Amino acid sequence: MNNKQIIIEVKNLVMKYGDLTAVDNISFDVYEGEIFGLLGPNGAGKTTTLEIMETLRTATSGEVYIDKLSVSKDREKVKNIIGVQLQQSGFYPGINLTELIHLFAGLYNVKVNPGEILEMVGLTEKAKSVYKNLSGGQKQRFAVATTLINQPRVVFLDEPTTGLDPQARINLWDLVKNIQSRGTTAVITTHYMDEAEKLCNRVGIIDSGKIIAIDSPDGLIDNLLNSGFERNEKVRHATLEDVFLNLTGKELRDE
Amino acid sequence: MNKYSNIKAMMAITRASLKSIFRNPSSVVFSLLFPLIFIIVFGFIGGGGGKFDIGFISTGDRNNPVYQKLTNIANFRVSDEPDEVLKTQLEKGKLDALLNIKVNPDGSLTKYTVEISTNNSRPEMANLCKLMLIHVIDKVNIRETEKAPPLVEVKELNVEGRLFKMIDFILPGQLGFSILSAGVFGTAFLLMSLRETLVIKRFFASPIKRKYIVIGEGLSRLIFSLIGSVIIIAIGHYAFGFTLINGFITFLNMIVVSALGLVIFLGFGFIVSNVAKNVNAVPPIANILTLPQFLLAGTFFPIDNFPTWLQPISKALPLTYLNDALRKIAFDGANIFTLPHEMLILLAWGVGVYVVAIKFFKWE
User: Fold this and answer.
1) Is the CB of B12 less than 8 angstroms away from the CB of A107?
2) Does residue A94 belong to the interface with chain B, where contact is any CB pair within 8 Å?
3) Among the four A48, A216, B20, B187, which has the fewest Cβ within 10 Å?
4) What's the pLDDT at B162?
5) What is the DSSP string of B258-309?
6) Architecture of A31-59+74-248 per CATH?
7) For residues A252 and A168, is the Cβ–Cβ distance under 8 A?
8) DSSP letter string, B72-127
9) DSSP of B239-267, one letter per residue?
10) Are B24 and B65 in contact (CB under 8 A)?
11) Is there a contact between B257 and B322 (Cβ–Cβ < 8 Å)?
12) Does B5 touch chain A (CB under 8 A)?
């Protein structure tokens, strides 16, 4: 990050469902052009926080600003500059990918070339397929593609690699890095630590609705090591995933 | 940046939704094939035979042109049984009509009076038979007037005097039924599944305002069902001789009334999709709203045949007025402006339904 321009500002965010406090006074910033990861165990409040940022939920109190626009007051303007991938994305049944892209282009009032968008996510050959018949990796790539239709400043990806095989995960990481290289900020949630380590410039760790740490992955690891932490087991220079990828190759197995 | 247009976004939803509906076999089957099967079945029942069994009371006059004419027309089979047998046959429905032709006293306005008795347990057949008889008598009158003043007076007046076929009664009812089921079931299932598969949630993340999502979906159902209505009327008209009195104008009026009915029943569909907890709960709730209307609103039987305690219920249902309006337009040549009673009640239902629908509407 050369110049740390803040694009998302989360201020004292609180979300209560009855007695349950899902998000408990969270504040953090996301810088323009970075990939920011929200980590945390299931039920920690990741998705709720994300959905407030995406204008899909209204916070009990606190405020989120995206490019200086309030998500509660300038909802429509915010929606125009963000792209959203839901944890389980829903797409209109019975119409093909090209038609779905036209649908979203209409929803955002933009003109697009579906072929270009599908090419970017490697789905050119699936242009006439319906979403339901795609493989897991293809589905996620298509969901990411729909977030780019309005050329957003920020994309939100909620657990984009959950349930994917290692090849498809690596492929999706490349896609997210590709999006970043075009100057788009990405906010992703995940509970895979290796994913956060390889993909994110900075991560915030959420537990029980609170941010308990926020830094770059390296910074967080250094911090832990400096406190005298040592792994019990011996660190080897390869993981089982390396073995798997070495044996099965890195090519996508979508077909 | 140009101003964001919700209408443009809405039309994108309508387009996508229409494509989706047309590619879904079950929606096509339910909204088009079902009513068509009914029409075809009834079309053949009503249009085929066309022979009526009639009898003449033996004490009646036989030396008159009506008797001669009726006994010579292929449409009527005249039974020669004694009076008592004829009466039982009429009660059992084996005879469609029993006629008694009386000679009026000298100095009367007309020369003869024909009394027609029919069996009300089969009102469609009875009406049809009466209409045929009156038609014949009218012809006799016209022919005889060229010689002398009208010969015959018909003493049977609760008939709206036009020759009509079974299909003329059945088709508007089927059209109403198709509109009802397309509106309620189609919309309820669609909205429910779009909600459950998070399609609507994904729409929310785009700038379109919520109400335009609903209007866009409703519009596509409306267009689809109206296409269905056009097909039903066209097949009825060209294949089974369904009567369109003023031709295209009658057809247009039927389409306008169909659209009004659809808007009302779409509202019912919205309510069902919001009251039901999940997809499985849709059919029972939708059936509660549609089945009684289907049975009580004069789809198959005229409301006048129902017991008197049931009639007020029939007369409260929107489908009753939709069916009535469609029949009066198709058969009597009425138009939407000459049916203020039906139209106002339908409009009132429309307002009422949407007040409830908006109150119950939920997004997730």
Assistant:
1) yes
2) yes
3) A216
4) 47
5) HHHHHHHHHHHHHHHHHH-SSGGGHHHHHHHHHHHHHHHTTSSS-GGGS-TT
6) 3-Layer(aba) Sandwich (3.40)
7) yes
8) T-TTEEEE---HHHHHHHHHHTS-SEEEEEEEPPTT-SSSEEEEEEE-TTSHHHHH
9) HH----TTTHHHHHHHHHHHHHHHHHHHH
10) no
11) yes
12) yes
Query: With a cut of 70, which residues of chain B have pLDDT below it?
Result: 1-2, 42-51, 74-75, 121-124, 145-166, 300-302, 363-364
Residue B30 is given by DSSP the state I
| Per-residue confidence (pLDDT) for residue B49, from 0 to 100 | 45
Residues 176-195 of B with CB under 8 A from A: 193-194
- φ, ψ for residue B338 (rounded to 5)? -95, 5
Length of chain B: 364
CA–CA gap between residue B136 and residue B161 (Å, rounded): 12
Q: For residue A202, give Cα distances in angstroms to A1, A197, A217, B259.
A: 11, 9, 6, 56
A202-207, strands of its sheet edge to edge: A82-85, A154-158, A185-190, A35-39, A202-207, A210-215
Place of tokens 């009726």: B70
Residue type at position A180:
Q
Angle among Cα B287, B293, B294 to the nearest 5 degrees reads 80
Pairing of strands B97-103, B112-118: antiparallel
Q: Do B193 and A108 touch (CB under 8 A)?
A: no
B-contacting residues of A 22-81, CB under 8 Å? 54-56, 76, 79-80
Domain boundaries, chain A: 31-59+74-248
Cβ-Cβ contacts under 8 Å, A102 against chain B: 12, 15-16
Identify the architecture of domain B49-154 in CATH.
3-Layer(aba) Sandwich (3.40)
Report the residue of chain B nearest A107, measured CA to CA: B9
Question: Is residue B211 less than 8 Å (CB to CB) from chain A?
Answer: no
Q: Helix, strand, or coil here: A216?
A: coil
The two structure tokens encoding residue B235 = 């097949």
Residue-wise pLDDT for B96-138, tens only, equals 888 888 888 887 778 888 888 887 766 667 777 777 787 778 7
Q: Mean pLDDT by 10-residue block, N- to C-terminus, for chain A (255 residues)?
A: 80 92 93 94 88 92 94 91 87 92 94 92 92 90 92 93 88 92 94 90 92 92 87 78 83 68
Q: How far apart are CA B82 and CA B88, in angstroms?
A: 10
How far apart (Å, rounded) are the C-alpha atoms in residues B271 and B187? 10
ipTM value greater than 0.95: no
Q: Where in chain B is the domain with CATH 3.40.190?
A: 49-154
Say if residues B346 and B261 touch (Cβ distance below 8 Å).
yes
- Do B202 and A106 count as a contact with CB atoms less than 8 A apart? no
Give the global pTM: 0.75
Q: pLDDT tens digit string along B338-354?
A: 878 888 888 888 888 88
A84, A95, A150 ranked by CB distance to B20: nearest? A95
Nearest CA in chain A to B206: A79
User: Between β-strands A6-17 and A20-31, what pairing exists: parallel, antiparallel or unpaired?
Assistant: antiparallel
d(CA B261, CA B181): 11
